[in-house]
């Protein structure tokens, strides 16, 4: 295993060298606390202002609508719990989907215990929600629609603009978890009628431990983390200055290069899908074939189990991920794969390959080659495959 | 956080001090919110011949006192009445939003001194109202 | 202004060069997500394990009792809201003090709105709580005592061991905000009967945006940030690996050098206090003279206002802080200075100088010299001083 082929960019990405360069001065040199009066701290303050502007520009927001957080998870928690608390007088009903990230789902489950009612929308076999079902599920006491921009496992991109229109029409606040979409596909909060948007630095070649929540001007959202007066009194805690600088730099690079990178990635992605489909039998593409993130490939390989597949790929230096129960930490395979209608035993054999803009065609060819061998080897080991073959005869 | 002009007036305050035989003295502010400003006016004829100030307050409070005294020095009483906190802020190239209230104090202190002058000389100044925040002499000092 | 004298180490500290060196490989090189299966991610996992062990060692805790957070503020929020939620069946009464950091106070105020009852203990003129008052305020429905280890403004160190004993005797959970104490004074969670402890990296020459919460094994504390299964399912969100590494390294360096540094700092601190008292009239030492953090000096200078003092010091290259209303962002001066009984106008003229282990005697001499001049200049400008002098005659 000499060379590593990293195809797990939906889990986390490599920090961009240029981003790191921008961060560096804010560790040891400009360490001042941005809340301080003296001029030494003004370097930190200025750096945060620039980062906030870059982030705001990247989603068509105003500077004053960006609030830095510790990551996508905190942003999701803040948005959902915050709206639940602030608008409780209007109602206790929230609409979301069955395929959200756990940061949204577990937050919703927490709220259910507090007496809130949550509607979990179904998705079709490609992972798309149904706009009519959404509209029908709106009630007079609905206070929030929280639907992810793009799914982290199967890559499907939801019809955000249509969802925003529905939300606006019914005067309901719309939050979207854009952790996977931010920096990868165009986002415009006004055109899409998004009221709240979560994103995370480390998914776009930025640093870990930093993210933001976009909060539209008119939205009442109290603090989730109480304390000092940072972030215009809405998010307490000494600012992670290098992290914020890194997020700003990453947002700028991602947006400046988005079109070009997406074009390249989509070509790579479609090539990889095509090659896998050409070389391996009994597989199923997960997620919508075109309405998907430019870097996401996800297949189920029947008769085999995901963790075995991952370990085998790892032995060849290939980093990937799976929604199998054996990797999910629970006894069930990924809730996303179940929601798109896969039976347990098929969901078990899922493999997610998420590319970066640096992924080469040679790497993809190597992966397909290895995958073919590994799948054959694991199937030869599989009693399910044996049964299947016997039944065929 | 402050403009160069503010810093300059903070560092080298103009007209800082007292006038022994002032025609009018005004002290405004509230020890509770930190700001106390005292303005001394020497008025001859209708002209402000000399002006001095003392200020207990933040950088913005000191700078606005300094600038406000600059702006009224040599002016007639009527012209001095037209020196608003906005004019003072503009002359300082602006203040951070949280510091706008400090500039109000400068305007009030000058008005209070003019009021004192008007009272002593039994005259009326157009548009001048009794200062609401004149705290006069400070008489209690807790020992520490 | 050529050289900067940074005496605001209670606000934030300079990142230690050696700490930064330890962090560096985890930005661009070892960027793997520690939750991943493949071996590339094992570097991140190992690094987190080492950091957790270092942090645990620094407070005499077990490795499994350390949970990484985004900073002191999050730790305080989690501890207090978490206990409030988990033990609500036992009661809704919490005891804290009037001099806590806003991260504790604003969290308690939030809970008051949710129907909890909070007792805010008084402190004496030195900032110390009264153990008998504490014991008397305990009720059958008291679920938490949250008292800071050392105060961030006046440096007073509370009688933590005695508080721990009282808490244990009455079987009440004891949380301490040790953000200022961690790495500066010895902490032992078992000897001191501490059940929950908050700390932050950037106050001990570690990075910003990282902290931890110590949670004693038997304490039931649910998640505050919901989502993925990180931190043994108790704190969701992709781990800030370089931040965690930095916190671990900073904790180790701080503890290894604590004795030596504290000895040196106390000498410096006492010298600074002595020099100021010798050179400037009409001043008051804030905080206890000996039961105080090794690096904290805090005085009120009568007749002058804190922000003016800070700006004047800044012009000489000296970074410090104040509890004056004009710097506090509210119309009142620091709640801590009011709680130790200072009248408003005296609280206004407070100055906090917090040293680092690198502070030199020459720097302190320069500061005293400048301070003397500045205080004279500002007093000459002060109507309060004028009145005082006149009244003296
Ligand atoms: C869709 C989605 N939401 C939220 C998160 C959580 O982000 P973070 O781990 O940065 O807090 C992730 C990533 O894990 C994600 O993919
Ligand atoms: C005593 C105390 N508690 C909590 C905090 C909050 O820590 P952080 O800003 O790192 O979240 C601070 C520092 O500002 C503090 O001094
Ligand atoms: S077979 Fe071992 S965890 Fe699934
Ligand atoms: S005098 Fe207090 S803020 Fe200006």
Topology:
The complex is a heterotrimer, with 2 copies of chain A (393 residues) and 1 copy of chain B (144 residues).
Chain A: E1 5-6, H1 17-23, H2 42-58, E2 66-69, H3 72-86, E3 93-97, H4 102-113, E4 117-121, H5 131-136, E5 142-146, H6 160-169, E6 173-177, E7 196-200, E8 211-215, H7 230-233, H8 241-256, H9 258-279, E9 283-285, E10 296-301, H10 306-315, E11 318-319, H11 325-328, H12 335-339, H13 344-347, E12 350-354, H14 361-381, H15 383-392
Parallel strand pairs in A: 1-11, 3-4, 3-5, 5-6, 6-7
Antiparallel strand pairs in A: 2-8, 7-8, 9-10, 10-12
Chain B: H1 4-11, E1 24-30, E2 35-44, E3 47-56, H2 59-72, H3 77-81, H4 85-91, H5 100-121
Antiparallel strand pairs in B: 1-2, 2-3
- In spatial order, strands of the major sheet of chain A run 2-8-7-6-5-3-4
**What would you call the shape of chain B?**
globular
Helix content of chain A: 40-55%
Number of domains of chain A: 2
- Mean pLDDT over all positions of chain B: 88
CATH fold name of the largest domain in chain A: Aspartate Aminotransferase, domain 2
Give the total of beta strands of chain A: 12
Which cofactors or ions or other ligands sit in this model?
pyridoxal-5'-phosphate, FE2/S2 (inorganic) cluster
Number of strands of chain B: 3
Describe the structure.
The complex is a heterotrimer, with 2 copies of chain A (393 residues) and 1 copy of chain B (144 residues). By secondary structure, chain A is α/β, with parallel strands linked by helices. Chain A contains 15 helices and 12 strands. Chain A folds into 2 domains: 17-256, Aspartate Aminotransferase, domain 2 (3-Layer(aba) Sandwich); 258-392, Alpha-Beta Complex (Aspartate Aminotransferase, domain 1), CATH 3.90.1150.10. Chain A is 41% helix and 13% strand. In chain A, strand 5, helix 6 and strand 6 (173-177) form a beta-alpha-beta unit. The two termini of chain A are 40 Å apart. The mean pLDDT of chain A is 96. Chain B is of the alpha+beta class. Chain B has a single domain, classed as Sufe protein. Chain: A, CATH 3.90.1010.10. In chain B, strand 2 (35-44) and strand 3 form a beta hairpin. In chain B, helix 1 (4-11) packs across helix 2 and helix 2 crosses helix 5 (100-121). Mean pLDDT of chain B is 88; it is low at 134-144. The chains are: A alpha/beta (393), B alpha+beta (144). At the A-C interface, helix 1, helix 3, helix 4, helix 8 and helix 10 of A face helix 1, helix 3, helix 4, helix 8 and helix 10 of C. Residues 325-326 of chain A line the site of one FE2/S2 (inorganic) cluster. Chain B: This is Fe-S cluster assembly scaffold protein NifU.
């Amino acid at each position: 295993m000499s060379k590593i082929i990293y195809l797990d960019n939906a889990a986390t990405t490599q920090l961009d060298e240029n981003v790191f360069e921008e961060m560096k001065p804010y560790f040891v040199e400009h360490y001042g606390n941005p809340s301080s009066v003296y001029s030494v701290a003004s370097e930190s303050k200025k750096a945060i202002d620039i980062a906030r502007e870059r982030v705001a520009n990247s989603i068509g927001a105003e500077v004053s609508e960006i609030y830095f957080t510790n990551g996508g998870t905190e942003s999701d928690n803040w948005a959902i719990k915050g709206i639940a608390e602030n608008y409780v007088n209007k109602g206790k009903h929230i609409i979301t989907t069955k395929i959200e990230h756990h940061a949204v789902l577990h937050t919703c489950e927490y709220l259910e215990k507090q007496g809130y009612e949550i509607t979990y929308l179904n998705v079709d076999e490609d992972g798309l929600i149904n706009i009519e079902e959404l509209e029908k599920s709106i009630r007079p006491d609905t206070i929030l629609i929280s639907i992810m921009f793009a799914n982290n496992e199967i890559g499907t991109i939801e019809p955000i603009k249509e969802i925003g229109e529905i939300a606006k029409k019914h005067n309901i606040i719309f939050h979207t978890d854009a952790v996977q979409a931010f920096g990868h596909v165009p986002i415009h909060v006004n055109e899409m009628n998004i009221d709240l948007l979560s994103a995370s630095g480390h998914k776009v070649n930025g640093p870990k431990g930093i993210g933001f929540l976009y909060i539209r001007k008119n939205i009442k959202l109290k603090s989730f983390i109480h304390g000092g007066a940072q972030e215009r009194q809405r998010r307490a805690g000494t600012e992670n200055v290098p992290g914020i600088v890194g997020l700003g730099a990453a947002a700028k690079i991602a947006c400046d290069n988005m079109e070009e990178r997406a074009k390249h990635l989509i070509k790579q992605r479609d090539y990889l899908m095509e090659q896998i489909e050409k070389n391996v039998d009994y597989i199923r593409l997960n997620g919508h074939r075109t309405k998907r993130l430019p870097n996401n490939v996800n297949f189920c390989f029947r008769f085999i189990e995901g963790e075995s597949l991952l370990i085998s790929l790892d032995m060849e230096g290939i980093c990937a991920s799976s929604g199998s129960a054996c990797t999910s930490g629970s006894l069930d395979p990924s809730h996303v794969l179940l929601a798109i209608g896969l039976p347990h035993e098929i969901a078990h054999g899922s493999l997610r390959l998420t590319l970066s803009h640096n992924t080469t065609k040679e790497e993809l060819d190597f992966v397909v080659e290895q995958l073919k061998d590994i799948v054959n080897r694991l199937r030869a080991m599989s009693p399910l495959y044996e049964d299947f073959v016997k039944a065929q005869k | 956080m402050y403009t160069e002009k503010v810093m300059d007036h903070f560092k080298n305050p103009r007209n800082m001090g007292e006038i022994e035989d002032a025609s009018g003295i005004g002290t405004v502010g509230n020890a509770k919110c930190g700001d106390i400003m005292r303005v001394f006016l020497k008025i001859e004829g209708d002209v402000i011949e000399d002006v001095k100030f003392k200020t207990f307050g933040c950088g913005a409070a000191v700078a606005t006192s300094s600038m406000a005294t600059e702006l009224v020095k040599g002016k007639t009483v009527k012209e001095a009445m037209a020196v608003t906190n906005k004019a003072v802020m503009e002359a300082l190239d602006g203040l951070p939003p949280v510091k706008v209230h400090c500039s109000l104090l400068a305007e009030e202190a000058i008005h209070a001194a003019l009021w004192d002058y008007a009272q002593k000389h039994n005259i009326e100044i157009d548009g001048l109202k009794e200062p609401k925040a004149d705290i006069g002499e400070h008489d209690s000092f807790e020992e520490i």
